[in-house]
Structures are given as C-alpha cells and as structure tokens.
Amino acid sequence: MKKGRVKRTEAAETIARRLKKLGYNDRSGGPIKANHVAQWREDIMAQGPRELAARRYHDALKEVETLEPLQVVTYLLNALPSLPPPHFPKNPDS
C-alpha cells in the first residue's frame, strides 16, 4: 500500500461496514463484525500462500501495493466472488 497506512482496527471496521452494505452476513445471519474481519486477516496471514484463499489474498495484496487505502478496500471488495450468495443458509433445503 501507498503512504496513507490505516490502523488494522480501522481497516477491519471499514471492511465490516462495506460487507454489510453489500449484503454479506456471518453464518448465523448476523452482520460481519470488525473483529471477525481482523481475525480472518490474521488467520490468512498466518497460513501463508499455501492455502488457496490465503494465496489469493496474498496475490491481491501484491496488486494493490501502490494504491491508497480506500482504493485497496474498493479493489478487494470488488474482487469478492460474485457467484456465491452473500449469505449461506445453515439449512439450504429449508
């Protein structure tokens, strides 16, 4: 990322708000919270590029190295898969 670095907590809050606005929910159907976003990031960063999701995240971070923080958020949110629904029901048959 470019010069305007953002604190991780602030970034997680921004991502959580934007995910809510896009209609994404957690598995219980509630809003995705900033602490969930922060924990996901920590988990992905700990995995390194060996897991597919982690590799995609690491690759995306390389793509946005020169962007401003808001541009990074926009890029990453636009990179979310558009095929899966924003909420995965616990009981798909119901």
Task: Describe this structure as you would to a colleague.
The protein is mainly alpha-helical and 94 residues long. 53% of the residues lie in helices and 0% in strands. The protein has 4 helices and no strands. The chain has helices at 8-21, 34-47, 52-63, 69-78. It is globular. The termini are far apart. The mean pLDDT is 77.
SSE map:
Blueprint: H1 8-21, H2 34-47, H3 52-63, H4 69-78
Helix pairs in contact: 1-2
Series of secondary-structure elements, N-terminal to C-terminal = HHHH
Q: Rg from C-alpha positions?
A: 14 Å
Task: Please give the count of helices.
Answer: 4
Number of strands: 0
The structural class is: mainly alpha
Q: Major sheet, described briefly?
A: none
Low-confidence stretches: none
- Overall pLDDT, averaged? 77
| Shape type | globular
**What percent of residues adopt helix (DSSP H or I)?**
40-55%
| Percent strand | under 5%
The separation of the N and C termini measures: 44 Å
State the main characteristics.
94 residues, mainly alpha, 53% helix, globular
What is this entry, summarized?
The protein has 94 residues and is mainly alpha-helical. It has helices at residues 8-21, 34-47, 52-63, 69-78. Helix 1 (8-21) crosses helix 2 (34-47).
